[in-house]
Structures are given as structure tokens and as C-alpha cells.
């Protein structure tokens, strides 16, 4: 009998999701004769049994397309009464034999709980934040970095012309990987991340000193960066169903403080969702393709309760519980970034 596999994407979207969906479907149809259904809008679709059949034609052209053809949501079944049973009942209604969940720590955290409850599920890690402990890379991170580095390059030329301090706010709630790696690759003069609360006086000292010999400064700040003793800058009041507040605005806050304390002409740019849009880079297409094929092979071998992960140059299965743990910026990476401050 043909194995029927559901695929869902949950949480914030990113480039490379569609490439992963395509890889799962192409591998599964070719080598295992699997049937596929797309579950709409993440865990919401599992609960409501909202799905559609996916075949070779439907995944045609997906490799290069950003976003997710399945839709996404931040629905958290664990916050609902009988959420686990509701997901299980959706699984049965759709007649599934297995589920492949593509997501970050929230979506895969639910997958881990569902696996504990006996659901046959495999995870594929994605998030532009690259903050899952179990894998060295997540789908979407490389594309986000590319966007950030392009933005820094562009800010450099205008910063130099106008002798300005330019602040670039990037995504990253709890982990500053986008800021650190993007900042290093773009040649940022100062990088502020959630893992390292900063002193405003120190920030001003770095800029003041730099302007003794240079006429401009590029600061990259992660949206979750906080001044020592202060709190995160919120963009909106509401929380999502995983309890996350919406962040944004630290760049503008810094702009005002720097202008006031140093008097330098200062501008802030918030990159926002541009980091999550558009076509995936080559690295993300390759990673998504390798993850998708491996997830399909694991389903073919009935190896469930795992997430595919990049370890060194290998794609390997790791327990889904690894996806829930945060991978934050370590001192070695921040130390590397600090070498180029000022
Ligand atoms: O989790 C990925 C992410 O892009 C974070 O970096 C960011 O804080 C958040 O999603 C933004 O979420 P939303 O798209 O719901 O505003």
C-alpha cells in the first residue's frame, strides 16, 4: 500500500521552504511511490484537516520561489484544550501515515510533543534566525544573511558620502546570529545582540573614538538587543500563541540616543521582513533539497520522532527534542566580531 505523507510549514516563513517541499515530494514519488498532501497553514490545518493533494505538477517551479505554497501560521495546539487529540484526529481524517513538519523551535517543539504522543512525525529545521541547537544551519538563514550584507554594503556608500552614523536593525529575538554573521561579512563597526546587553556609554565611546579618524560608522543591531538594565523595544503590544512579543524599534531608539549624546548625523534603517522574502540563495536551495530528501528517506525507513540536521557536512537525524533548545551566539563568534569594532 502507498504511504500517504502530509507536509506542513509553520511559524515565520523564509526562502527555501518551497524548495524543501519540492525535494520531499520529488524524492518520495520517485523512489518510494509515496502520496503527498499539503496541510494548510501549519498546525492550524492539522487541527481543521485543511489539506490538498500534491503531485509532481504542483511542485514544478517551486525550487526558486520564496515563501511557502502551503501557507503558514503560528497556531499552537498545545495552548488549546485537547490540542494533542485534535491534531491526532486531523491526522486520521486526512488518512496520513506520516507527517513532515517544516518549522523553527515553536513548530518543531509541537512536533516533538506530538511524537511523544505517538504521532509519526519528522521535522525539517527552518528559520532565518539559525537558532536551533540540533543543527548547524537552518533553511532561510543564508538568504537572510545575503540580504543583510547587501543592505550593509549599500549603507556604507551613503554613510561615507554624508559622514553619518548608520544603524541597521535586523531580525533576531533571542539569538543574534543574523547580526553577528551579517555584520562581520558586511564590515560593521559595531554589532549589538540580545546575548550581550550593552551600555549606551560604551556604544557612544566606540563611535566617538572611531570618528577621530573616520567620518562614518555602521552599527548593526538585532531587534532583541537590550541596554543593560533595560528591556526590549516592542513594536506592538500583542503576543503570538507561543507567547512571543513583537519586537522592533531598537534601531530608532539608538538613533535618538546617539544623536543626542554625540551630535553626529545619525539614521536608522529597519530591514524587517525583507530578510524573509524573495528567492532562496544557492546555499539555501541546496540545504533545503538535502533536508527534504533526507526527511523522505527517514519516512521511507519509518524512522520517526527525529529532525534532519546539518552536522559538519552531513545531513543526519537528531531527536526532535533538540530543535526546542536555543543555539545562541557564543563568545568565540562575538569575539571575532569585536575584533573589527571601532
Ligand atoms: O522567527 C523568525 C522571525 O523572523 C524572527 O526573527 C522575528 O522576530 C519574527 O519571526 C517576526 O515574526 P512576524 O513575522 O510574526 O512578525
Bound molecules: 6-O-phosphono-beta-D-fructofuranose
Tally of discrete structural domains: 2
The end-to-end span amounts to: 64 Å
Helix content: 25-40%
The CATH architecture term of the largest domain is 3-Layer(aba) Sandwich
Into which percentage range does the β-strand content fall?
15-25%
What oligomeric state do these chains adopt?
single chain
Label the overall shape: elongated
Biggest β-sheet description: 7 strands, mixed
Low-pLDDT runs of 5+ residues are none
* Mean pLDDT across residues: 97
The topology string of helices and strands comes to EHEHEHEHEHEHEHEEEHEHEEH
> If helices are DSSP runs of H or I spanning 4 or more residues, what is the number of helices?
10
Instruction: Please give the CATH class of the largest domain.
Output: Alpha Beta
Q: Say how many strands there are.
A: 13
Q: By helix and strand content, what is the structural category?
A: alpha/beta
Radius of gyration: 21 Å
Question: What labels describe this entry?
Answer:
four-stranded parallel beta sheet; seven-stranded mixed beta sheet; single chain; binds 6-O-phosphono-beta-D-fructofuranose; 10 helices; alpha/beta; 13 strands; 20% strand; 2 domains; Rossmann fold; 342 residues
Amino acid at each position: 500500500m502507498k504511504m500517504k505523507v502530509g507536509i506542513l510549514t509553520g511559524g515565520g516563513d523564509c526562502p527555501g521552504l518551497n524548495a524543501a517541499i519540492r525535494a520531499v515530494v520529488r524524492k518520495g514519488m520517485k523512489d518510494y511511490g509515496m502520496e503527498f498532501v499539503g496541510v494548510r497553514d501549519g498546525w492550524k490545518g492539522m487541527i481543521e484537516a485543511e489539506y490538498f493533494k500534491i503531485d509532481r505538477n504542483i511542485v514544478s517551479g517551486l525550487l526558486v520561489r520564496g515563501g511557502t505554497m502551503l501557507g503558514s501560521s503560528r497556531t499552537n495546539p498545545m495552548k488549546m484544550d485537547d490540542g494533542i487529540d485534535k491534531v491526532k484526529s486531523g491526522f486520521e481524517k486526512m488518512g496520513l501515515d506520516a507527517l513532515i513538519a517544516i518549522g523553527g523551535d515553536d513548530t518543531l517543539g509541537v512536533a516533538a510533543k506530538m511524537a511523544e504522543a505517538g504521532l509519526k512525525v519528522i521535522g525539517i529545521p527552518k528559520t532565518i534566525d539559525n537558532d536551533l541547537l540540533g543543527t548547524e544551519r537552518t533553511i532561510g538563514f543564508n538568504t537572510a544573511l545575503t540580504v543583510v550584507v547587501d543592505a550593509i554594503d549599500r549603507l556604507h556608500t551613503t554613510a561615507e558620502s554624508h559622514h553619518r552614523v548608520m544603524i541597521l536593525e535586523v531580525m533576531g529575538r533571542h539569538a543574534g546570529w543574523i547580526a553577528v554573521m551579517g555584520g562581520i561579512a558586511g564590515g560593521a563597526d559595531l554589532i549589538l545582540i540580545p546575548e550581550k546587553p550593552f551600555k549606551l556609554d560604551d556604544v557612544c565611546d566606540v563611535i566617538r573614538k572611531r570618528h577621530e579618524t573616520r567620518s562614518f560608522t555602521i552599527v548593526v543591531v538585532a531587534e532583541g538587543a537590550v541596554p543593560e538594565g533595560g528591556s526590549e523595544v516592542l513594536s506592538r503590544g500583542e503576543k503570538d500563541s507561543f507567547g512571543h512579543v513583537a519586537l522592533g524599534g531598537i534601531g530608532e531608539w539608538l538613533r535618538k540616543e546617539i544623536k543626542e549624546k554625540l551630535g553626529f548625523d545619525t539614521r536608522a534603517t529597519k530591514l524587517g521582513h525583507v530578510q524573509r522574502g524573495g528567492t532562496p540563495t544557492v546555499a539555501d536551495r541546496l540545504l533545503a533539497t538535502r533536508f527534504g530528501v533526507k526527511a523522505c528517506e527517514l519516512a521511507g525507513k519509518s524512522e520517526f520522532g527525529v529532525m534532519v540536521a546539518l552536522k559538519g557536512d552531513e545531513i543526519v537525524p537528531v531527536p526532535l527534542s533538540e530543535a526546542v533548545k536555543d543555539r545562541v551566539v557564543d563568545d568565540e563568534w562575538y569575539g571575532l566580531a569585536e575584533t573589527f569594532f571601532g
